[in-house]
Each structure stands twice: as C-alpha cells, then as structure tokens.
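During the no-cost extension, the postdoctoral fellow (Dr. R.K.) reprocessed legacy sequence entries with the updated structure-token encoder. One reprocessed record is reproduced below for audit purposes.
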Amino acid sequence: MDSTESSYISSAEPLTNAPPKSPPSPSSDVAEKPTYVRFLVSNSAAGSVIGKGGSTITDFQSQSGARIQLSRNHEFFPGTTDRIIMVSGAINEILKAVELILSKLLSEVNSENDNDAEPKSKVRLVVPNGSCGRIIGKGGATIRSFIEDSQAGIKISPQDNNYFGINDRLVTLTGTLDEQMHAVDLIVSKLSEDSHYSQSINSPMSYPGYHGAPSLLPSGNPSDYITNGPGVKFENSKEERSNSLTIGVLDGHVGFVVGRGGRNIMEISQTSGARVKISDRGDYISGTSERKVTITGSQRAIHTAESMILKKVAYATEKAIEVE
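Re-encoded structure tokens follow.
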C-alpha cells in the first residue's frame, strides 16, 4: 500500500500522477481562483479513496480536474486517528472531487445498512484558526446564514491548546450528502476570498512531532507531567532511549482499553506492533487516580498504540457524559 500511496502523499513534493489541467471554463473569476479544502478521513477510508493501485484516486482526479493528496500513513490530525485529505484547484473542481470522495465513502457505509432513509453523516474540515472568523462572521451572522441555506449542521471546534503548535480548527458538517456539499460550497467560496487562506495551500499536512498521538511538549524534568485531554502522560530521557512511553488512564476507563476478554488490547498490540502493559489496580501514577499504561516498541508503534488507546479513552469519556 505504501508504494501505491507514495504518488499521492506529502504536500512538499509534486504529485506525479496529477491529472493534466483542463482549460478554464467560462465561469466567474471566483470559481476559477485556485484554492483548496482539507478534511479528515479514517485510515481505512483513505485506502478506499486511493483504490487498488491508485485507480480510484486517479479516476477522481481525472473526472474533477482537481489535485487530491493525503497525509502519510500514521500522520494523523492531532487528537484523532484520522488522516488528512487535501483537494486543490478551482472551486468547481474541488466541489466535484469532494462529492466523488464523499459519495464513495457514503456508498460503502450504505452497503452495510438496510435503512432506506437518506443517511446523515459528518465531515470534518480542517481550517486555519486565522480563517475561521470569515466562516463565523460578525456576531455569528455568516455561519447562521450558511446553516440556514445549506440545512447542514455546522460546528466550529474551539482552538485546542492541548496540542503544541497546532493552529488549525475542525469545522464539522452534519447532514445528508447534498446538505454537506452545499455547506462545503459556501465555506470554500468564503475562504477563497481570504488571501492568507489561499497562500497556506502549500503548508505541510503533517504536524511536527505528531504521528497519531498528541505532540509531546518539551519536558526537561523526568518528573514533569503533561496533561493532554482525557489522559496524563509523561516521558523521560531514559524511557525515550528505550522507546517506552507511559500514559495515565483513569481506573474506570481501563476496561474500555482492555476490552472483553482482552480483545481491545490485543487488537491494539497487533495493529501497532507495540507491547502494552497496564499496571495493577491501585498502582497509580503518583498524585493521580490513573493506572499506568506503558507502551514499548518502535517510535511508530508507540505513536500508533497511544493513538488507539486515547481513542478508546475518549469513547469512554463520551459514554460517561451521556450517563450523566
């Protein structure tokens, strides 16, 4: 898979399989202005978008005229296990490509369900923090009009200060495919008016120090603890040399990490290639009520396992909130 993906990943290198540019259509200047959109897809969905031997992504590029790129395998958006897709070109080309991608993913979900009702799904756009103001508008006027016009739910995440150096926010669109596409059209058209947004088209899709888990903030003291959302983690120089990382997970959430009969923890180990060890009940990280989860292996294996564990913890947290 990696060799196939190499033609479509990394925003720093030119795309070898990029389709030839179609001649400009007689539409407005705004529609033809080169811009881009980024959104998240799961790792498995990324494989579906690429297709066997790159056939699907090549077809989508040919049909739309847009350029489609993905972040590298295991290069996820901070706090998620989702990869980033970037679609660039003129707005009409972008919209065509995004619709092809979302339709493909939606059709695969629908094939697993027998429900005849038109499904509602979520798409998470990645937008620079400095450009979110254009989507919100004065007093929220713009985002309200976008919601009313598209009938899609539109929610902008607060800026997450838990991740060092992250200047992007997620804009979640909820609705049917038509509603989502209408919202994407409105948002991308508005963002394309911002010269700073258009200039960030060449910014890398990876986040420094982040490969499927929150970036580690500099910690000179081995006893320093860094709080990152639902878990607490620390790393000291000795552990770093031996490729070992310990994170803290609340005692009540450990069951979600382990899974019935140890199914989840075995899946995490097999998928990541890392060894995962959980401390006994009562053996907590000093000063907390959190069990020690020690991950050992290569750096990539550790990052992947940590990301999968944090996803389980986030799910456990959501379930706890629902109960309350």
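The longest strand covers residues 35-42. Confidence is low (pLDDT under 50) at residues 10-31, 211-242. The remaining legacy entries will be reprocessed before the final report is submitted.
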